[in-house]
């Protein structure tokens, strides 16, 4: 049976997902294909109906439709509910199930880098969509101290309210002179290679960025001379894809990260 997979979002010019999933299909000896649909919001419903009509098995969802697609799901799994966004649609006989594998991707990114937030001082930079995958991980691996810094303070406040615990919030300008064990960048600053603002805080153990291009991102380059772990977002991208692929096909992929590092950076 041919396995139809795809991606919806906009823009999709720089997506790496077809490369990843077509490789997963090949590695699993499955016959199928993964294609991109750069659509407008007006085309969303008809595109999802088209997926059903042509018996698609699964579709990834990226910005700006991760929330919009939820209305078309007959069921949301616990990860999609806890994040409030769907990145994976699974077309089943019981309807469309919405999942979110970003939490798994983030978890695996830290796990494979030997980073654990348990009892550490952790700073989360940003309070947009990308920050949502960090929250469930921190619920499991509770830091000793947790601070969210965001340019728009109200968004940091909304995010902090997802926790039962008290979480401090501040603006990035208030971070001058502070010290953290682990800092996680989820802002989009640096996504086009522009420099990251140095807010003057120190990092003792690890700088983690959700951006993965270039390999040394603008945020990570600020700490390249410090003796700390520098982790970009490629592992998160690959592992969230492996999570989606597992939901659609039942195949448990162990991604060959060496292969992907070479493919993306060499
Ligand atoms: P995403 O879904 O990628 O997280 P988003 O929801 O638009 O995108 O969030 C982008 C995040 O990057 C936000 O936290 C944003 O801060 P604001 O909430 O104040 O907008 C942050 N961000 C983007 N550009 C920034 C910049 N130049 N300086 C500081 N923060 C920035």
Automatic annotation (TrEMBL):
<feature type="binding site">
    <location>
        <begin position="150"/>
        <end position="155"/>
    </location>
    <ligand>
        <name>NADP(+)</name>
    </ligand>
</feature>
<dbReference type="InterPro" id="IPR041121">
    <property type="entry name" value="SDH_C"/>
</dbReference>
<dbReference type="GO" id="GO:0050661">
    <property type="term" value="F:NADP binding"/>
</dbReference>
<dbReference type="GO" id="GO:0009423">
    <property type="term" value="P:chorismate biosynthetic process"/>
</dbReference>
<dbReference type="InterPro" id="IPR036291">
    <property type="entry name" value="NAD(P)-bd_dom_sf"/>
</dbReference>
<dbReference type="GO" id="GO:0009073">
    <property type="term" value="P:aromatic amino acid family biosynthetic process"/>
</dbReference>
<comment type="subunit">
    <text>Homodimer.</text>
</comment>
<feature type="binding site">
    <location>
        <position position="210"/>
    </location>
    <ligand>
        <name>NADP(+)</name>
    </ligand>
</feature>
<dbReference type="GO" id="GO:0004764">
    <property type="term" value="F:shikimate 3-dehydrogenase (NADP+) activity"/>
</dbReference>
<dbReference type="InterPro" id="IPR006151">
    <property type="entry name" value="Shikm_DH/Glu-tRNA_Rdtase"/>
</dbReference>
<dbReference type="InterPro" id="IPR011342">
    <property type="entry name" value="Shikimate_DH"/>
</dbReference>
<keyword id="KW-0521">NADP</keyword>
<dbReference type="Pfam" id="PF18317">
    <property type="entry name" value="SDH_C"/>
</dbReference>
<comment type="function">
    <text>Involved in the biosynthesis of the chorismate, which leads to the biosynthesis of aromatic amino acids. Catalyzes the reversible NADPH linked reduction of 3-dehydroshikimate (DHSA) to yield shikimate (SA).</text>
</comment>
<feature type="binding site">
    <location>
        <position position="240"/>
    </location>
    <ligand>
        <name>shikimate</name>
    </ligand>
</feature>
<dbReference type="InterPro" id="IPR022893">
    <property type="entry name" value="Shikimate_DH_fam"/>
</dbReference>
<dbReference type="InterPro" id="IPR046346">
    <property type="entry name" value="Aminoacid_DH-like_N_sf"/>
</dbReference>
<feature type="binding site">
    <location>
        <begin position="15"/>
        <end position="17"/>
    </location>
    <ligand>
        <name>shikimate</name>
    </ligand>
</feature>
<dbReference type="GO" id="GO:0005829">
    <property type="term" value="C:cytosol"/>
</dbReference>
<feature type="binding site">
    <location>
        <position position="233"/>
    </location>
    <ligand>
        <name>NADP(+)</name>
    </ligand>
</feature>
<dbReference type="Pfam" id="PF01488">
    <property type="entry name" value="Shikimate_DH"/>
</dbReference>
<comment type="similarity">
    <text>Belongs to the shikimate dehydrogenase family.</text>
</comment>
<feature type="binding site">
    <location>
        <position position="102"/>
    </location>
    <ligand>
        <name>shikimate</name>
    </ligand>
</feature>
<keyword id="KW-0560">Oxidoreductase</keyword>
<dbReference type="Pfam" id="PF08501">
    <property type="entry name" value="Shikimate_dh_N"/>
</dbReference>
<feature type="binding site">
    <location>
        <position position="62"/>
    </location>
    <ligand>
        <name>shikimate</name>
    </ligand>
</feature>
<feature type="binding site">
    <location>
        <position position="87"/>
    </location>
    <ligand>
        <name>shikimate</name>
    </ligand>
</feature>
<dbReference type="GO" id="GO:0008652">
    <property type="term" value="P:amino acid biosynthetic process"/>
</dbReference>
<keyword id="KW-0057">Aromatic amino acid biosynthesis</keyword>
<feature type="binding site">
    <location>
        <begin position="126"/>
        <end position="130"/>
    </location>
    <ligand>
        <name>NADP(+)</name>
    </ligand>
</feature>
<feature type="active site" description="Proton acceptor">
    <location>
        <position position="66"/>
    </location>
</feature>
<feature type="binding site">
    <location>
        <position position="212"/>
    </location>
    <ligand>
        <name>shikimate</name>
    </ligand>
</feature>
<protein>
    <recommendedName>
        <fullName>Shikimate dehydrogenase (NADP(+))</fullName>
        <ecNumber>1.1.1.25</ecNumber>
    </recommendedName>
</protein>
<comment type="pathway">
    <text>Metabolic intermediate biosynthesis; chorismate biosynthesis; chorismate from D-erythrose 4-phosphate and phosphoenolpyruvate: step 4/7.</text>
</comment>
<keyword id="KW-0028">Amino-acid biosynthesis</keyword>
<dbReference type="GO" id="GO:0019632">
    <property type="term" value="P:shikimate metabolic process"/>
</dbReference>
<dbReference type="InterPro" id="IPR013708">
    <property type="entry name" value="Shikimate_DH-bd_N"/>
</dbReference>
């Amino acid at each position: 049976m041919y396995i139809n997979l795809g991606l919806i979002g906009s823009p999709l010019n720089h997506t790496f997902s077809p490369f990843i999933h077509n490789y997963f299909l090949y590695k699993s000896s499955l016959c199928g294909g993964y294609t991109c649909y750069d659509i407008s919001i007006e085309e969303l419903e008809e595109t999802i109906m088209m997926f059903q009509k042509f018996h698609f098995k699964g579709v990834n969802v990226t910005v700006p439709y991760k929330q919009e697609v939820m209305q078309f799901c007959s069921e949301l799994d616990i990860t999609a509910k806890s994040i409030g966004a769907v990145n994976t649609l699974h077309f089943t006989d019981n309807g469309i199930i919405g999942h979110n594998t970003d939490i798994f991707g983030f978890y695996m990114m830290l796990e494979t880098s030997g980073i654990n937030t348990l009892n550490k001082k952790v700073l989360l930079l940003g309070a947009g969509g990308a920050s949502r995958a960090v929250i469930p991980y921190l619920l499991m691996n509770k830091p000793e101290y947790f601070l969210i810094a965001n340019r728009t303070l109200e968004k940091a406040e909304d995010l902090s309210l997802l926790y039962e615990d008290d979480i401090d919030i501040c603006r990035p300008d208030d971070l001058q002179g502070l010290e953290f064990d682990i800092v996680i960048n989820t802002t989009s600053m640096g996504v086009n290679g522009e420099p990251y603002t140095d807010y003057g805080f120190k990092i003792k153990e690890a700088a983690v960025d959700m951006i993965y291009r270039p390999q040394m991102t603008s945020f990570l380059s600020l700490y390249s001379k410090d003796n700390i772990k520098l982790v970009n977002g490629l592992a998160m991208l690959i592992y969230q894809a492996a999570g989606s692929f597992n939901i659609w096909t039942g195949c448990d992929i162990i991604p060959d990260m060496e292969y992907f590092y070479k493919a993306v950076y060499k």
